[in-house]
Design goal:
The chain is α+β, with helices and mostly antiparallel strands. It contains eleven helices and twelve strands. The structure holds alpha-D-galactopyranose. Alpha-D-galactopyranose binds next to α5.
Length: about 375
């Protein structure tokens, strides 16, 4: 839907009049660097061209009213008691952002907001980060008239998710959504938020995202369990390496020398994945800069295998997609993207092979799993912005 039709929809839902504002922020696909962000490691996500658009208008009272183009829900919340809405089925990301901004002293005012989301919900492409970042940008800009530092907006989104929604996530998704750049990936160090936009010279290759369409359950508890295992591994390593502050700081060589300190074998496997994945991210940046897509594809494959065997967050659906993708001659790399346990894979596929790829992967997946996957052929797009 274009902005004019969205504004018309806004007026038919909330009434005519007043000045309308528009904001957008995308979802993301992580190219490589999975489960490294909350370990102070490095990641390489890109913003995608699917995302959230908001049409907004100030109100004269203290209410924040939310609607969406694809949902029947209507949320009317009082800005003076935002903690009352934490468990509503839709709207908690938005109200969480308002809550954090108010706590930070931003004079958020009452407003009507219409959300238009094109990122599939719950599909592992961070539709939630797109909503959080677009909302934070919108509320901040309407309150102050200024364009914020988008890195701060990313942090507000992450805090809303941790402190309000209750998901103990890292910073990758919100950072990619806020800071994405067209035709670039974002090489981010999650320890100090230093970053570099890395040009994606994909030539004849396309980024193909495939959604398992699996209904995910228990993902939050499994995610938090992995975080706990990494913290345990770090604690054991710190007994002999007191200055080590996160697993992301370890080189594979240092890890080999010290892995015996980690008492539990499962925690040691999780930590090995994190350390080796960070090394793969750094190597990916080098090969991408030199245009060596074949080597990057191999690193993507290694990343998936490590997430399957060491980190154990893939599962039958993601593995089936990746195995089918790798059988295609036009595909040079395929891996799960995001938290795992369902969600999406990302594959690099030659442009003239994309049709055969989607047809064959879809057939094999449907035969084995019993329902069809969905495909999105996307490119790296811009991050959060005022429209
Ligand atoms: C989810 C989280 C991110 C990151 C990934 C795994 O998307 O929101 O912070 O931890 O999982 O890499």
């Amino acid at each position: 839907m274009d902005i004019t039709s969205l504004k018309n929809t806004f007026c038919s839902l909330f009434g005519e009049g007043g000045e309308l504002f528009a904001y957008a922020s995308p979802g993301r696909v992580n190219l490589i660097g999975e489960h490294t962000d909350y370990n102070g490691g490095v990641v390489l996500p890109a913003a995608i061209t699917l995302g959230t658009t908001i049409i907004a208008r100030k109100r004269s009272d203290n209410k924040i009213c939310l609607r969406a183009t694809d949902l029947p829900d209507y949320v009317e919340a009082d800005l003076s008691c935002l903690s009352a809405y934490k468990n509503i089925p839709w709207g908690n990301y938005q109200l969480g952002v308002a809550d954090i901004l108010l706590k930070d002293g931003v004079p958020v005012s009452g407003c009507d907001l219409l959300f238009h989301d094109t990122t599939p919900h719950g599909g592992g492409l961070s539709s939630s980060a797109g909503i959080e970042v677009a909302t934070a940008l919108c509320l901040y800009h309407m309150a102050t008239g200024k364009m914020p530092d988008m890195r701060e907006i990313a942090k507000v989104g992450q805090r809303a998710e941790i402190e309000y929604v209750g998901v103990n996530c890292g910073i990758m998704d919100q950072f990619a959504s806020a800071m994405g750049k067209e035709n670039h990936a974002i090489f981010l160090c999650c320890k100090d938020l230093s970053y570099e936009a890395v040009p994606l010279f994909l030539g004849e290759y396309r980024i193909v995202i495939t959604n398992t369409n699996k209904k995910r359950s228990l993902i939050t508890s499994k995610y938090n369990e992995r975080r706990g295992e990494c913290e345990k591994a770090l604690g054991d390593l710190q007994t002999a390496m007191p200055s080590l502050s996160c697993l992301g700081d370890l080189s594979p060589e240092e890890f080999e020398k010290n892995v015996h300190l980690i008492k539990d074998a499962t925690c040691a496997r999780r930590a090995r994945h994190v350390v080796e994945e960070c090394a793969r991210v750094k190597e990916s940046v080098n090969v991408l800069k030199s245009g060596d897509l074949a080597s990057f594809g191999k690193l993507m494959n290694d990343s998936h295998d490590s997430l399957r065997d060491l980190y154990e967050v893939t599962g039958e659906e993601l593995d089936t997609l990746v195995n089918a993708a790798r059988m295609e001659s036009g595909c040079i790399g395929s891996r799960m993207t995001g938290a795992g346990f369902g969600g999406c894979t990302v594959s690099l596929v030659k442009g003239d092979s994309v049709d055969a790829f989607t047809e064959n992967v879809s057939r094999i997946y449907t035969e084995k799993i019993g329902y069809a996957p969905s495909f999105y052929i996307t490119s790296a797009g811009d991050g959060g912005r005022i429209l």
